[in-house]
């Protein structure tokens, strides 16, 4: 009987000792303890073991707004970059007739295309500033060019340089047709009027020094007396001054005349410059 009681007390003591850990893990943390599950594979998690997690607010994809049919970008009309001149329609008509300066609409209203054409015309004949405005000088030059016709020169079929004093223009003819020009010139001022008549070129120098006026005369081609073709040394559209009888040319035109004409080429000078 005493032996039985002793055995029962020992079993009870062992049972109480196994449950003393405060969170059920104390024994597992003790060195040398081996769990009953050591060496066995861990159980596969079940679907219910994964907690539900609310989706992140940034994870949600906002629907794209529908494109408006009017949202498609459109091209703005080209802005006019130069002012309208007081001779807009006249210059438009002249450039349309002369041709070679681009598209021009003859309606008296400045447009980007008109602006571009007028600027091109101004640059060609050195009408400053090159602003595309149809002002008095642009109108004057365009009208002078229109009036400079082949019939005014009375040239034959050979190579001929024509000088129109009335319109202050020059051009080159060959075979009875204009082959270069007309373009602008400036001839003798009051007291130094350029001689009129039919002449021949008889002296040519790439750069002639005028002892009388102390100035270099590029692309010099003598026509009559001490007068001839040469590149202008001042602003050619300054009508308040003029040459001392010579036929002033823009740089581009001076080179063209030099390369086209030769010693013995006929030169016809006619008309009269205003004020001389």
Written overview of the protein:
- Mean pLDDT is 81; it is low at 1-61.
- Among the domains are: 88-144, no CATH class; 150-270, L,D-transpeptidase catalytic domain-like, CATH 2.40.440.10.
- The N and C termini lie far apart (164 Å).
- The radius of gyration is 50 Å and the shape is globular.
- The chain is an alpha+beta fold.
- It has helices at residues 2-18, 26-29, 88-98, 112-124, 136-147, 150-153, 251-260; strands spanning 160-164, 169-174, 177-184, 197-200, 203-210, 215-224, 227-231, 247-249, 266-270.
- Strands 3-2-1-9-4 form a five-stranded mixed sheet.
- It contains seven helices and nine strands.
- Helix 3 packs parallel to helix 5.
List the helices and strands and how they pair.
Layout: H1 2-18, H2 26-29, H3 88-98, H4 112-124, H5 136-147, H6 150-153, E1 160-164, E2 169-174, E3 177-184, E4 197-200, E5 203-210, E6 215-224, E7 227-231, E8 247-249, H7 251-260, E9 266-270
Parallel strand pairs: 1-9, 7-8
Antiparallel strand pairs: 1-2, 2-3, 4-9, 5-6, 6-7
Signal peptide: 1-17
Domain L,D-TPase catalytic: 159-270
Biased composition (Low complexity): 45-80
């Amino acid at each position: 009987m005493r032996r039985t009681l002793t055995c029962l007390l020992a079993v009870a003591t062992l049972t109480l000792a196994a449950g003393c850990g405060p969170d059920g893990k104390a024994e597992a943390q003790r060195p040398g303890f081996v769990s009953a599950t050591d060496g066995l594979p861990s159980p596969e998690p079940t679907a219910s073991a994964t907690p539900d997690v609310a989706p992140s607010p940034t994870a949600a994809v906002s629907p794209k707004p529908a494109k408006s049919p009017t949202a498609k970008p459109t091209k703005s009309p080209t802005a006019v970059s130069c002012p309208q001149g007081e001779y807009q329609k006249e210059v438009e008509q002249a450039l349309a007739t002369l041709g070679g300066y681009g598209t021009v609409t003859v309606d008296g209203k400045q447009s980007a295309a008109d602006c571009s054409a007028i600027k091109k015309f101004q640059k060609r004949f050195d009408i400053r500033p090159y602003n595309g405005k149809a002002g008095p000088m642009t109108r004057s030059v365009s009208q002078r060019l229109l009036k400079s016709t082949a019939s005014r020169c009375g040239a034959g079929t050979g190579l001929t340089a024509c000088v129109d004093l009335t319109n202050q223009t020059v051009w080159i003819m060959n075979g009875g047709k204009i082959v270069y020009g007309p373009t602008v010139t400036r001839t003798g001022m009051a007291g130094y009027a350029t001689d009129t008549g039919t002449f021949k070129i008889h002296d040519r120098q790439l750069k002639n020094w005028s002892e009388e006026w102390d100035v270099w005369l590029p692309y010099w081609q003598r026509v009559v007396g001490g007068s001839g073709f040469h590149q202008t040394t001042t602003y050619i559209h300054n009508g308040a001054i003029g040459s001392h009888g010579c036929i002033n040319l823009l740089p581009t035109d001076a080179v063209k005349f030099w390369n086209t004409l030769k010693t013995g080429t006929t030169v016809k000078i006619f008309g009269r410059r205003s004020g001389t």
